Structures are given as C-alpha cells and as structure tokens.
Structures
1.
Amino acid sequence: MSPKAFRERGYLSLFASYYRPHMALFLLDMICALGIAAVDLSFPQVSRWAMQTLLPDRLFATFFAVMAILILAYVLKAGLSFIVTYWGHLMGVRIEADIRRDLFAHMQTLSFSFYDKNRTGHLMSRVTGDLFEIAELAHHGPEDMFISAVTLLGAFVVMLNMQWKLALAVFVVVPVFLLFSVFQRKRMMRSSTQVKQKLAGINGEVESCISGMRTAKAFANEDTERAKFEAANDRYRNAKRGYYRTMAIYFSGMEFAMGILPVLVIAYGGILIMQGEMDFITLTTFSLYVTTFISPIRKLSAFMEMLMQGTAGFKRFVDLMRLEPEIQDAPDAVELGASAPVAGDIRVEDVTFRYESTSPAVLEGVSLHVHPGETVAVVGPSGGGKSTLCQLIPRFYDVTEGRILLDGWDVRELQQRSLRENIGIVQQDVFLFAGTIYDNIRYGRPDATEEEVIEAARRAEIYEDILEMPDGLNTYVGERGVMLSGGQKQRISIARIFLKNPPILILDEATSALDSVTEHRIQSAFDELAKGRTTLIIAHRLSTIRSANRILVIDGCGIAEEGTHEELLARGGRYAALYEAQRAVAAE
Ligand code: ADP
C-alpha cells in the first residue's frame, strides 16, 4: 500500500486489513475461544443438574457418567486452549511479520533527510518494541474480548435465571471491581512508562561510565565515576518503587475482590435461603459462577492496557507509513544508460542548497563542469559544503535552486536506481554489514564470482591484509566481528566499487590521519579505480590533490578558486595557503 492509501484509510480499517490474509487462523481462534467459554459456562449448570436430579434418586451410575463427560469437556478445553495459545500467537506473529515487512520496505523508500531527523535507536524501537505490542493486541485483542464478553454475558444470563435477586446484587458489585481494576492497571501502566523512560536515561549513564572506563583511569578519576554510577544506580532503585507500590495495590485489591465476592454471595444467599427463596444446591452452583466471573474481569482490564499500548504502537506505525518520501522518481523518469552508454559528464549549474528551508544555505550559486573521464578534486575548509555537493549528484538530497545535469539529464528526471547504479561512492566512514569480508566486498555486485571478488580485493590493495586474517575472505566483520582499521575499511569499500564498476566515481577521503604506507596503498588503489572514470574527489591529502586534473576550492558558499595545482600555487591565493599549511603539518 502506498503512503497515500495509508492516508486515505482509518486506523481501524488498516488494522483489520492485516487480518485478511490470516482469516482462517482468525476464525479458528474465535471458534476455539467460544468453545472454551462454553465449557466454563456449562460446568456449574451441569453439575447442579446432576446433584439436584441424579443424587437424590441415587442414580450413581449416570451421575459418574456425567462427571466423566465433564472431565472430557475439560480435556477438550485444554486442547482448545492449546490451539488458541499456539495458533493464536502464530497468527499474531505472522501479522507482526507482515507489518514489519511493510515498515521496512517503506523505510527503504524514505530519503536521507528522514534519517537525518530520526535517530537509529528510536527507529529500532519502533521496528521491535512497537510491533511486538501490535502483535500482542492483534492476537489477544479479539480473543480476550470475545471470551470475556461471552463468559460474562453467559454467566449473567444463567445467574439471572437461577436467582435474579442474587444475580442483581452481584451485578451491582462487579462494575465496582471492574472500575477499580481498570483504574489501577492504568496507573500501573503510567508508572511503568515512567520507569522505562527513567531506565533509558540511567542505562545511557551506565553505558557511558563503562565505555569511559579507559578515560577515567587515565585521569585517575575512578572516584568521580563511581559516585556518578552510584547516583544512577540509586535512581534506578527509586524509579521502581512507585511502580511496585501501584502493582501491590492492584494485586491485593484483586485478591480482596476475589475473596469477598463469594463471601458476599454466600451471605446474601443465606438470607434468601432463610426466607425460603432458594435451596442449598442453587447457592453452591451460584458461587461457582461467581468464580467464573473473576477471570474475565482480569482479562478485560489486561485487555484495556494492551489496547492502549497496541493502538499507540499501531498509530506510530501508521504515521510512519503515511510519510511521503521526499525524493521520488518522476512518473516519466528516464533510465540512465538505457539509450546510450553513460559518458559521465557532470554539470552543476548555479546550485543553491539548504538542508532545511529555514536553515542557512550550505552552497550558494555553485557552478562547475566535470568532463567525462576527468578527475576533479574539491578542497576547502571543513564545513565548507564539499560532502554536501557530492551528495547532491546521486540525488540523496534535491537542490534548493539550480540544477545538476548528468550527460545532459537533470538528475531529477532520471530513475534514482539507474542514477545510483552508475555512481560509485566511497564514503568517509565506511559501513560494513555484519557478515564476512567476502560478503561485504560482493555487496558491490551480488552476482560476482569468487575470482572476481579476489581480483577486486587485489586491485583495492586489501587482499594481502585479508590473507593475514584468521579466516581469510571468510573472516567475520561488522558488529562482534574482527576489528578493521579505518584504512582497511576504506580499501574494502574501494574493492566494492571495483566490482560495481560504475562510470562515475565520488570519493570522500577519510580525514583521519593514516600512516604513510596505508596512505600510499589507498592512493594507488584510488588511482587505479579512477582510470577511465569521471571522478570527483573530496581531497584532504596532498597526494590526491596533485593527481587531479583540476582543483576546485570551495569556501563559504561557493567556488572560490579553480585551476590546476600549479596554476593555483602560482596564484598565491587560498589554495596556496591551504597547501602550505598542509605541507607544514605533513613535514612535522
Ligand atoms: P565539508 O564536507 O566541506 O566538511 P559538509 O558538506 O559536510 O562540509 O557540511 C557543510 C555544512 O552543512 C556544515 O555546516 C554542516 O554542519 C551542515 N550539514 C552537513 N550535513 C548535514 C545534514 N545532514 N543536515 C543538516 N546540516 C548538515
């Protein structure tokens, strides 16, 4: 479903739409739930009938046959409970998986700006926590409501039939308990949310204390850290106190209700018996019905809580699904490279760019032309907008004013996929996916053969390093994997691009200092990669700058200087100053 379809439908209809593919399981769940309620409701009536009619006539054989049937009924109920618990949860988890699939597919369409504004941790909690609560509601919601309503209603009818005065007395008291239960549960939930919020903060502090252990030791500041840790620990302890108090009130209240209700019934029943309006067996049966009341009351109040959490989670999910991606293909978008091979001619025409409509311009009136096969280096002070410029070419963001042309096409007229397939980007901080080095290199072209992967690793000058690792190409990297140096990660990302083999290249060099051997290897890998491709380099190192055909100096909002290394040095302007400064640092 598109974001538009999500916007046009209400929450309830959207929620119901997730049940549609699992209708068979849903009906099975409901039928079994009905069976469970029926067994619970018939037991007191049947045993009353057996006691009243069979026992006085000493029809013991029939009496025990009826008891055996009741036992069988409870065996059946156990079977039904199994189905409801197992298949019902399965239905819930399938709905959860469907929702998660839709959510992830939608998140993939959202643009960079969305990920700038939303933190990963926050999004993760949506994909895990929220969806779990939705699944619980999807499964328990209809079933709990159904079983509880049927049981309560059924018991009400039966009790009215048996002794209407006693039944009415019970129905005056029960709503009081129900209200108490719902109210207390709500309080419990509120304080549990508070505890969760506090815990998140405390966990953050604890994490910082632990990850800062080395710094603390270096400054001999263990005492300060311990004091901070203990303060966090105390707040953790106190945060839970309020929660446990509401929990204790709730449980003791429910215990009280469970105990007092049968006592009240028996006391008032005693009066009715005194007045000759009722017999002993009816009173016994009646008390049994009173106990069948308690569990639906508990279930209903638990359901209220689940409903609140589940609907809040589902609303957050729907709100996300309703977001329209900021960058979308035009309906008549053109496939780059479909009609002619991609030459790699990049023109930036009078481009102005702001991250937010209200924030200051990062680039203002920038124009440049990179000819096919040319290597252009962009240099300038940090924060000058170099990375931003590079992100506009693959259309990670759209220009605010002006336009960017690729082989004469405005990038907004091209299919994003075809645009990005033709651009290779080596970013400053390389992301490695959890998996082997082999998988991570093959990410550049998932159908590459092992020989091609090895060849790419060789050309990226990383193969020798890989051979020295514990499992070679099959060494596990990413989270909980082998730690790679920044230089190694960059060469892995270069290997990816060798496999991808795009006509256009964007290199965002690492700013962090590299040793001279690593720098040399990265440089020669870059040079090899840049051959025959249009290349835009954000250069921080002298060596890369010198190998460029042309150098652009970006400063403040636009291009301050342009020319070859020699031309710019001769001019003695910003570039010359920057170069001198870098050389002085390098010499040190
Ligand atoms: P450079 O690569 O020259 O160091 P950048 O292009 O990274 O410069 O940054 C230019 C300016 O844009 C900086 O002021 C930076 O704070 C801002 N900026 C960079 N990325 C974002 C973003 N995703 N959202 C908002 N502002 C950003």
Note: The chain has 20 helices and twelve strands.
2.
Amino acid sequence: KNYRIALLPGDGIGTEVMEAAWPVLQAVADQQDFGLVGDCLPWSCDYYLEHGVMMPPDGVEQLRAFDAIYLGAVGLPETVPDHVSLRELLLAIRQGLDLSVNERPHRLLAGVTGPLRTDKAFDILCIRENTEGEYSGAGGRVHQGGDLEVAVETSIFTRAGVERVLRYGFERARLRSGKLASVTKSNAQRHSMVFWDEMTDRVAADYPDVQVTRYHVDAIAARMITHPETLDVVVASNLFGDILTDIGAAIQGGLGFAASANINPVSGGPGMFEPVHGSAPDIVGKGLANPLATLWAGALMLQHLGEAAAAKNLMTAIEKATASGAGTPDMGGSLSTAQLAQAVQAAL
Ligand code: NAI
Ligand code: MG
C-alpha cells in the first residue's frame, strides 16, 4: 500500500527538520512494507514573496487529494508579517479542512529529564479544540480612542464543536488508561463553560467505562506540575488548551520535543501533522534544530494512517536514541539536526 503525503517544509528550520525527518519515515515504512509517496509543496513565505499569496487559491482543494499533510514550520518574521503567514497558510488549512481537534502528546522520553526533575510519571495527551471557542474572532471595539472605550472578545461554543472534541477525547481515553480530565472555568464563566460541563456529562453517558474528572483550568495547570501522574487524557477549549500544551511542552523538555496532530474527527480527510515550534530564525542554517518533534509528529501521522506498528517502531527508535544520550544542543547534546535523525534511523 502507498500513502500520498503532502510535504510542506515551509520556512526556516521547518525545511531543516523536514529534510532530516522524511528519510527516517521512509525507512520505517520500508520495514513495514508500505510506501510513503511524498509530494513537496513549496508554499511558504518565499512563495508569498514571489506570488503574493502563501498558497494557490485552490490550495486546500489540492490538499484534499492526499492521505495526510506533514508540515515543518512557517514564518519569516523580518519580511512577512506573522498574521499573514499563519492566517493564510496554517489557519487556512486548519479551517479549510475543518481540522477541529488538535492532539498533543506530552511525555518525558527515555533519558530526558526536563525542568521538573521529578521521578513522577509524566505522560499526558492534551486534546485541544482547534476552530472555535475563545479564538472565534467575534467581537469588536466601541467608542474607539475615547474614555469610554470598550473591547469585546466573544467566545463561541457550538454544540457540534464541543461535542466532537469531547467525543474524540473519550475515544482516546478508552484506548489509554480510561481516565479523562475535562477542563473548564465554570465557576467564573457561567455561559460557555457551564455549557461545556453539560456537554461533558452528555457525552460521558456514552462512555461508562471512562472515568471523568472536571478541573478548573488554573487548578489543572498547577496539577500538571505537582501531580502529573494523576492525569491522562486532558480535553480543553482553544485558549485553555493553548496554554496547557505550552506547559506540557515545557515539562517534556521544550519545543524541540512537542508534536501535534490536527484532525477532522467528523468527516475524516487528511490530517495535518507538525512540530509545535516555529521557523526559529535565531538558529536557522546552523544545524541546531532538534528534529525529534518532527519525527514524533511523523509517528502521530503513521498512527493516524492506521500503521500502528510503524508508529510504535519509530517511537521506540526515538527513545533508543535519546536513552543512549544522543541529542542536539537544546538537549545538552552535540549532534546536528541531521546526525540526530540518523541516530534514530540507525536505532530502527
Ligand atoms: P519558534 O518556535 O520558532 O522559536 C522559539 C525558540 O525556540 C527559539 O529560540 C528557537 O531557537 C527555539 N526552537 C524552536 N524550535 C526548535 C527546535 N526544533 N530545536 C531547537 N530549538 C528550537 O517561535 P518564534 O521565534 O516565536 O517564531 C518564529 C517564527 O515562527 C514566527 O514567524 C512565527 O510566526 C512562526 N511560528 C510558526 C509556527 C508554525 O508554523 N506552526 C508556530 C510558532 C511560530
Ligand atoms: Mg501556543
């Protein structure tokens, strides 16, 4: 079987980590007797400077023909404003393909300590609502510039939107430890978050085997640091998930490790798999970029394609490499981007 993958290296270290990671994925596929056929799409800030758009007008339609999208990072902040590069490419793809669930595994890989220096287990799967909520963009300004000026930012939570992200979380919890944390702030936000709690109860009725705990976002933020071993699947809104996943990334050792999957859990179609980090202009061209987040995102992609054995092989190889002390400078190691990817490939 051959899978068609849209490769979007993007800008800066996005191209470096993709170049390092893609051959490793090919090697994983070879071992399992399936193929990954990559089609490299040049959509990026360079493309923007040449064509005046981040991607062709039918870009989203082109992507629908693929089984998955594998993305590096986008952004050339000195030349192209970030709201242009992010909105017109990343957000356009997320919205165009209705990738309403953002899934991020936070785990300490073998041999990696992270800043907490605790021996408590740290293995959390954050599921973030990706298309509505606090980031809906609804609102505006009244009496602009005057003493009575008011800015309003309205959160929008739809029944369909809340239900699909919760349901996805319950499905994942079932496959993991059977524990789900639902994150709200329903003591202070009495419309949207009370609604979220009601939806949690409603969906939970279909999953009697999953143990649900409600947390307020401030409390769970602290708990991720003090008692991470009590958490497994964490489902949160767009804003809350945004913040909690940065905490998760920090605990697991930083942006060099954080991987994410953007998925349409309702109608399917290609998901988008990417490292969480950006194009890192401060380290571009020096071979300093950690490729593990991109490789981990690759494992999420293989898992989502249904190639569970290949995903597992890749994660095992990543951890063999980290356990042996292989690392880029952000991990305290001395390997280059390409060398660390090669160490993972050698461990396959
Ligand atoms: P960034 O994630 O690119 O970098 C933040 C810091 O982390 C930098 O010091 C960087 O050197 C370091 N870092 C990031 N990834 C690393 C890796 N793999 N290995 C080692 N160190 C790593 O965020 P920043 O600097 O705020 O944004 C730079 C550009 O990236 C902007 O144009 C921004 O809009 C864009 N961006 C794109 C994202 C995406 O494509 N998904 C996500 C975040 C930012
Ligand atoms: Mg964030």
Note: The domain at 1-103+258-348 is CATH 3.40.718.10 (Isopropylmalate Dehydrogenase).
